[in-house]
Amino acid sequence: MKDLSKSKVPEFFDQTSKTYDAVVRYSTFGRDNSWKKTIVSKIPYSNTILELACGTGLLTKKIYLANPRAKITAVDITRGYLDLAIGSLQNSGIEFLCQDAQQIRLGKKFDCIVTSYLPKYCEPEILVKRCTEHIEDNGVVLLHDFAYPSNAAVKFLWKCLFKLLQFCAIFLPEWKAAFYELPKIVKHTTWIEDYKKLFLKKGFDVTISFQTMGCSCILEAKMLENPVDKKS
User: Fold this and answer.
1) In sequence order, what DSSP letters do the residues of 185-232 get, joined into one string?
2) According to the 3-state scheme, what is the secondary structure of 80-138?
3) Which residues, 6 or more positions from 198, have their beta carbon under 8 angstroms from its beta carbon?
4) Residues 6+ apart with CB under 8 A from 107
5) Residue 223 has pLDDT above 90, yes or no
6) Average per-residue pLDDT in the chain?
7) Of 8, 38, 90, 213, which residue is the least packed, with the fewest Cβ within 10 Å?
8) Which one-letter DSSP state was computed for residue 42?
């Protein structure tokens, strides 16, 4: 499933940049905005912030407004999304880079690393390694993504939502692959447990915060006073 998740990124997102903001807003009934506010509230005072998979810049803008003096670097693998982010944040001083989050070698470290909707698509060992290579001592890593709810009633509503989205794909054909494959990925991913285990092994303190009745999750990894060797 991890290999499937990674392979779906180009199929899901190459042609969806122009409609992404509206789709994510309406498909989550506005909860995406709330989740992003929560993510930003967890960012400690930081001089430098790295955002991975910044997309069209929805979270990037909130980070910038809450941390206007911080030096922010935003990375995304999809050029169409990145161009929209750059256009919406002109004159912000944010450094935008078109790169794969799993392959970044920026040669510098950050006080905070943030990402939303990326973890389920990545190989956890690789993404954690990239994060530990780029995080300052006492830094914080914030990972956010969808989760499969455990409550039976919420699970039923969750499945109904995706049935509705699959019907909507008639009018948004560029989203058909995402609406049909995403629920499979979310249902089977073990990203929360995988990243928690790896960050704990690297010497981080990990906090898990489920959002909206278990439909999404924020994983907060804080460096401990005496972390293990981050290069291992």
Assistant:
1) HHHH--HHHHHHHHHHHTTEEEEEEEETTTTEEEEEEEE-SS---TT-
2) HHHHHHHHHCCCCCCEEEECCCCCCCCCCCEEEEEEECCHHHCCHHHHHHHHHHHEEEE
3) 124, 125, 128
4) none
5) no
6) 93
7) 90
8) T
Nearest CA among 192, 54, 186 for reference residue 113: 54
pLDDT digits (tens, 9 = 90+) for 176-186: 999 999 999 99
Strand partners, 193: none
Overall residue count recorded for the chain in this entry? 232
Which region, left, alpha or beta, applies to residue 91 given φ > 0 means left and ψ of -120 to 50 means alpha? left
pLDDT tens digits for range 95-122: 999 999 999 999 999 999 999 999 999 9
For the entire predicted model, the pTM comes to 0.93
The values of phi and psi at residue 51, to 5°, are: -110, 125
Structure tokens at 169: 């794909």
Distance (Å, whole) CA 34 – CA 114: 16
**CB neighbours of residue 95 within 10 Å:** 12
pLDDT, one tens digit per residue, over 46-57 is 999 999 999 999
Return the structure tokens found at 20. Answer: 């992404």
Q: Which pLDDT band holds residue 8 (cuts at 50, 70, 90)?
A: low
Q: What is the DSSP letter of 23?
A: H
Q: Quote the pLDDT of residue 204.
A: 97
Can you tell me the distance from the alpha carbon of 203 to that of 201, in angstroms, rounded to the nearest whole number? 5
Order of strands across the sheet with 48-52?
Answer: 95-98, 71-76, 48-52, 110-116, 135-146, 216-223, 204-211
